[in-house]
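User: quick one, sequence for these tokens?
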């Protein structure tokens, strides 16, 4: 009788060890997937950062052009005023 109890106990322990290994493999797989997902997010973040910097440069260039065009318009207005007097 004790022999059957020990065999049953050893089978239960083997089952628990099997569940633990299954869970360990599951957690490892989830960790790898999250790491891959995080790398994808970092890559996407870098692309968006580069795009943002390019947009800021373009806005700065356009602002400079607008300021230069506004100064030219003011100069032209003054020239028209001087010519009229």
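Assistant:
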């Amino acid at each position: 009788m004790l022999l059957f109890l020990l065999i049953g106990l050893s089978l239960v322990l083997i089952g628990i060890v099997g569940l633990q290994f299954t869970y360990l493999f599951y957690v490892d797989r989830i960790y790898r997937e999250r790491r891959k997902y995080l790398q994808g997010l970092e890559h996407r973040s870098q692309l968006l950062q580069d795009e943002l910097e390019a947009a800021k440069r373009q806005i700065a260039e356009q602002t400079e052009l607008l300021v230069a065009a506004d100064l030219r318009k003011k100069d032209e207005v003054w020239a028209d005023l001087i010519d009229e007097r």
